[in-house]
Amino acid sequence: MGKAVKKLSARAVATIAQPGRHSDGDGLYLNVTRSSARSWLFMWKKDGKRREMGLGSAGSVSLARARELASECRAQVAAGLDPIEARDAAAGIKPEKPTFGAIADALIAAKESEWRNEKHRAQWRASLTEFAAPLRSRPIDEIDTAAVLAVLTPLWQTRPETALRLRGRIEAVLDAAKAQGHRSGENPAAWRGHLSHLLPKRGKLTRGHHAAMAYQDVPAFIAQLRECNAIAAMALEFCILTATRSGEVYGARWSEIDVEAKVWILPAARMKAARAHRVPLSERALVILGKLGDAKTSDYVFPSPRGRKPLSHVSMAKVMHRLQIDGATVHGFRSAFRDWAGNETHFPREVAEAALAHVIGDKAEQAYRRGDALEKRRTLMEAWAGFCEPKAGSNLISINRASV
Fold first, then answer.
1. Domain definitions of the chain by residue range
2. Half-sphere exposure of 114 (CA within 13 A, CB side)
3. pTM for this predicted structure
4. pLDDT tens, position by position, 287-330
5. pLDDT band at residue 369 using 50, 70 and 90 as cut-offs
6. Is the CATH number 3.30.160.390 carried by domain 10-90?
7. CATH for 215-388?
């Protein structure tokens, strides 16, 4: 830093009335509040970020003394020290390390704009709040292998998919803490070369596809859905008819729907494969949209009760729970659709896979397949809607079959 400018005078310090920070030069400021209270501040930059430290009240610390204190601070900064840390160390005060919960929340806030849907954001929040609850109040530099294992071990065999994702998220939080200078050494949540020696390997875990309702049972289930007369039930039927992912349905906006063309255009930003996807809408799907459009209160096709946000990401699963459906998941209806298309129709595999927005073939094959077979898929989805239409007298009593 250069030579202090000394812009202020003792009289100015006593008489300046305008609220704000008034510079004396080289980082020393007189801070005047709206209530005319006066205090001294020293300001500097560390790692490109502005830092500031109070030097006392202007009533008890004279201008000359404030300049002496600021000079000491400048010398510490020039020596690579942090004046606040130096002051605390001199007073025997140890700096507090942030907690795991604080770092986790900050990481989610920083990264959530990268995530394409609210469901993914909610899963991060839930796993790092609920399953990692024992870690949240602990200082981030105290999280060790034993602490990580205490959280993961109860889930590792019973809920392997949840445990795998939780491990990766804990690792990300600890990496973020290290990048911020709050930790050092190896990451105790790392898999390769560390937890791989302490927990069963991924291939040994019981992992399967989402449990799916047998496609033969879908028409009777839809008959039950129509008796619910709730937005979540309509969302679930729409999800089944379009063979889309639940997150795509929850985030559906009216601006994506072209009723005249009978197509729902999902932008790349909301798709798992990061590619825009056109969904042909069957007549029954359009009927559902018509009912919702007549009472439209939101930009979202399936709004929450308050209307400003989409339905909760667990709404459709709750409908299935209320209907006492066992052995099936919302995502599993995509498997039911695929099984039906393969077992009951002559539509080419590529058409059925395109309906599921799956990327088919290697990069060379994808380069030559530029179309999305929309009209062929329209015929397929209309046939699926016809199959799903409840038969006269259909009544679902119990569904507990699952295909994997």
1. 10-90, 100-204, 215-388
2. 6
3. 0.53
4. 999 999 888 888 999 998 877 788 888 899 899 989 988 778 88
5. very low
6. yes
7. 1.10.443.10
